[in-house]
Write a structure and sequence with these properties.
By secondary structure, the chain is α/β, with parallel strands linked by helices. The protein has 6 helices and 5 strands. A 5-stranded parallel β-sheet has the order 3-2-4-1-5, with helices on one face. The protein is globular and about 50 Å long. The N and C termini lie far apart (39 Å).
Amino acid sequence: MISKIRALSGVFYTLLVIPFTILLMYCFQNAQRKIRQITAKGFITLFGVQAKIEGELDPSAQILIMNHQSFMDVIYLEALHPNNLCWIAKKELGKPFLYGHALKAPKMILINRESKKEVVFLLKEAKDRLEHGRTLCIFPEGTRSKGEEKFLPFKSGAKFLIEHFNLKVQP
């Protein structure tokens, strides 16, 4: 019974709350961070998400480097991090209608990892977000891990951004 309630809640959240959130982000661009934070906190509360926090978030870090365990990584950090986050993701994630607008409305950076020309685009977009006080967020493995204790090989994008802009990193 509980699993059915959670499933229905998930459908409700996806079909009603997420489109409303996207609409608000397009309409109130100066409040996008607050809108994302409220939506993420609502999700965590509604679904009873709990996480063990180890260490402290460094608000002065300019880039967060993370191991991607589940879709909850993004939601949890959106809810709890004090800064305006800018997620760097593969371009394919921008194609599904709802998910695409959830990334495009708050100006997340979507890149084609296979194209060498994307480096110039990534640098331009990252510079813009940094100049607007946003904290870059990247999963250097390029995908979710399957709960293994070993890291997958890192893609070069995170290292390139860190070195190019001399960014303060928080792993």
